[in-house]
Amino acid sequence: QVQLVESGGGLVQAGGSLRLSCVASGPTLSTYGIYDVGWFRQARGKEREYLAAIGWSGARTYYSDSVKGRFTISRNSAENTVYLQMNSLKPEDTALYFCACRRAHGMGLQDFTLTDYWGRGTAVTVSS
Description:
mainly beta, seven-stranded mixed β-sheet, four-stranded antiparallel β-sheet, globular
């Protein structure tokens, strides 16, 4: 079992920044192998939206059009942590943000449909 815990959410004014963290842990993490991590969000009353992903080595990244140029994904593999730096935040970025992981099998990051584990989310509220 692998646990993912998100943190870093909060209330910020439009135009501001937040950095979200996703920390992986668990008794089987050492045997889980190399893994990709994706970030998603779900606003109230809307479907879950796929935002960004990073490959196991950190060399490959993917961004959706809605966040490209504003959000940056990175990872510190030594600390089993993936970050999502969010700049120029807008009220429409208000949502619950989740991270998810999957074993890395060389798949492209554009499709992150198949996942193994999810975190419980961290809430982001952007005021106008």
